[in-house]
Design a protein that fits this description.
heterodimer, A: mainly alpha, two-stranded antiparallel ribbon, 3 helices, 60% helix, elongated, B: mainly alpha, globular
Chain lengths: 85, 566
């Protein structure tokens, strides 16, 4: 999976992980809210949809895909020429 | 006058909503801190060291524009005009974005200029450079103020804070991460903001559609509401343009909005072009606006449709209220179309989702303002300070100066936030600004890039006459000499500015002396060797899915399909 032959290393800062962190936490909180803490009147308000639960699950799936992408295609920083970066 | 003041919009936010919101702000500031470590020269600060991948700059490209204009303004337009609002996306953005990527980017990126005004300096002369640089800087401060004011309004509704407190707190947050991490922090945050905005608006749209009984339910309700069934088809959009005749309306949309306004905005506005300039290769720079075009196509569905739903389900906007608002009177309920999105959130979203929706809204305002600040500081530092006032200082001087300018600009934006508050329809206000500054610019650029005979003096005189004629049309309409309701006046003003610019430029070029050919290499089509206009197709730029031309073709085809369906 990780190609050791190229003289590169993983970049310390990858915006994809921060996006995944934010949406992941949001998804987790919403899913828990949807399962346990969303009152019936709130569900009626949202036209009978438990939107917390569904949006939460959607965000968790999104997070999983983003993490997968980050793992499969990491940002590589070339180690040899530190040219301006 | 307060834009959103009259109706009761206080959202029932609870601790969990504040927590979700706070988490977002922690990450926003964290990105500023992390990006700071990548800043060691002025080029890092102002152009991210030209090192970002295309998908990042592509998302930032549309996110920079996904500020107050799109989210509040477009859902307000959706409530007022219905689906014709989609023209602002499909006609008013996509073709211009593709054109920028395919035709113009090779000159911007290839010539290694650091800003759009710098291109003016090299292609024409100092007056042209100053006209462009100063008008751009002014516009950015005004627009940053408008974004700030809207943001403060939303915070005011949510937390009940006084407007002025919200304006200052919001300005300080944006200032902190922009001054720390420069363009990289702004761009990374724009990408994050894009996802938060989608996470906020997509569930809102879904719940809204369920509430009105699906798409068919929305069609039935809108047909039965004031405004009627014409709001369900994007063409010919008479209500939007304010033209009675279908032919004029379509002409106004295609030429005024689709050609002059949108090409002026998307291809010459440095806020947008800067994002592409920050990418890591010519290929990535050309792909930036093209990649951005794909999500851009679908943004109207999560912005306009909630507006339409609000206009037929929210008590304060329905029935007699909508009739009164469409007639240009105040609604009995005191609500305006600008409230549409907030009212819908109040009616539909439970705590939890509500917090994310608020985060999404605040994100969109900050995206807009940070984009204005990060492009303003680049133009002010490179094009005004370094070019005319303090030349030949060490690079670190300009880096420090750029951080200082960012702070100064934030203070000015706080001032202009109060100017923005005097207009009730923010869309009109922003469109007016764009038509003054941008419409003649596109004419000058396109003529300058393809006609090497165009002279330096033609550059600035065309711009000034074009801008002046746009102002004239606007003033004539205000004073009642001509009368164009709706957005039509912007389209006409932009078209007039474009034509006047071309005519003046050609006439002046014929009587003044052009620049020698060797100074125009890389700046004019016929004098630029083909190799410098082309991009690498190896390494990280290889693969059919990275070909700008092919991607642009797919984007264009999809847009045409969307226009046929709706």
């Amino acid at each position: 999976m990780t190609d050791q032959s190229t003289r590169t290393r993983r970049a310390a800062f990858d915006i994809r992980l921060i996006i995944a962190l934010l949406i992941g936490v949001y998804g987790l909180v919403l899913t828990i809210m949807g399962l346990a803490f969303t009152a019936d009147e709130d569900i009626t308000k949202a036209a009978g949809v438990n939107i917390n639960l569904w949006a939460g699950i959607g965000m968790l799936i999104f997070t999983a895909l983003f993490v997968l992408w980050t793992v499969l295609r990491p940002i590589r920083v070339s180690e040899e020429p530190p040219s301006g970066e | 006058m307060h834009v959103l003041a009259a109706a009761n919009l206080r959202l029932d936010a609870k601790a969990i909503d504040y927590l979700l919101l706070a988490f977002y702000f922690v990450l926003v500031l964290g990105i500023g801190y992390l990006a700071r470590r990548q800043v060691s020269s002025s080029l890092d600060f102002f152009l991210s060291g030209r090192s970002l991948p295309a998908w990042v700059t592509g998302l930032a490209f549309i996110s920079a524009n996904l500020g107050a204009v799109e989210v509040m303004g477009m859902s307000a337009n959706g409530a007022q005009y219905g689906l014709p609002t989609a023209h602002y996306f499909w006609i008013g953005a996509i073709p211009a974005m593709l054109f920028l990527g395919i035709v113009m980017m090779p000159f911007y990126y290839g010539s290694k200029v650091r800003s759009v005004p710098e291109f003016m300096l090299r292609r024409f002369n100092r007056p042209a450079h100053l006209v462009n640089g100063i008008s751009f800087a002014l516009a950015q401060i005004l627009i940053a103020g408008a974004n700030l004011y809207l943001l403060a309004n939303v915070v005011n509704l949510l937390l009940g804070w006084p407007i002025w407190v919200s304006i200052i707190v919001a300005a300080v947050i944006v200032l902190t991460y922009t001054a720390l991490g420069g363009l990289s922090a702004a761009i990374y945050n724009e990408v994050l903001q894009f996802f938060v905005i989608v996470a906020a608006l997509l569930p809102l749209t879904v719940v809204g559609l369920v509430k009105v009984g699906g798409w068919q339910g929305l069609v039935d309700k809108v047909t039965g509401s004031p405004g009627g069934a014409t709001q369900l088809h994007s063409w010919p959009g008479n209500q939007l343009t304010g033209f009675g005749s279908n032919f004029l309306s379509v002409l106004g949309l295609v030429f005024g909005l689709g050609f002059v306004l949108s090409f002026g905005y998307w291809t010459t506005n440095f806020v947008e072009v800067q994002r592409a300039m920050a990418s890591k290769s010519m290929s990535a720079a050309r792909r930036t606006p093209i990649i951005g075009a794909f999500p851009k196509m679908f943004v109207p569905f999560i912005v306009i449709i909630p507006g339409m739903i609000a206009a037929v389900t929210v008590t304060e906007l329905m029935g007699e209220n909508k009739t009164a608002l469409l007639a240009g009177n105040g609604a009995p309920s005191g609500a305006t179309f600008n409230d549409a999105l907030l009212l819908l959130m109040r009616d539909l979203l439970p705590n939890g989702m509500l917090g994310i929706a608020i985060a999404g809204l605040l994100a969109s305002f900050m995206a807009g303002m940070a984009a204005n600040l990060s492009s303003f500081n680049t133009v002010f530092t490179y094009d005004i300070w370094q070019t005319y006032i303090k030349k030949d200082k060490p690079d670190q001087y300009y880096l420090k100066f750029g951080r200082g300018v960012t702070a100064g600009a934030s203070i000015l934006a706080i001032g202009t936030a109060f100017i923005a508050s005097t207009y009730s329809n923010l869309m009109d206000y922003l469109q007016t600004l764009f038509s003054f500054f941008n419409a003649p610019l596109f004419a000058t650029f396109i003529l300058g890039m393809f006609w090497k005979r165009m002279t330096p003096h033609a550059g600035w005189s065309g711009l000034i006459c074009g801008t002046a004629s746009a102002v004239t049309v606007f003033v004539l309409n205000k004073t009642g000499v001509i009368s164009l309701p709706g957005q039509g006046v912007s389209f006409v003003a932009a078209s007039v500015a474009f034509v006047v610019d071309i005519v003046v430029s050609v006439l002046v070029s014929l009587v003044t002396r052009p620049k020698p050919d060797e100074q125009l290499v890389g700046l004019v089509y016929s004098l630029t060797p083909k190799s410098t206009r082309q991009h690498e197709t190896t390494g990280e730029d290889a693969g059919w899915y990275r070909k700008p031309g092919l991607l642009a073709g797919i984007a264009l085809a999809l847009t045409i399909v969307l226009n046929i369906i709706f």
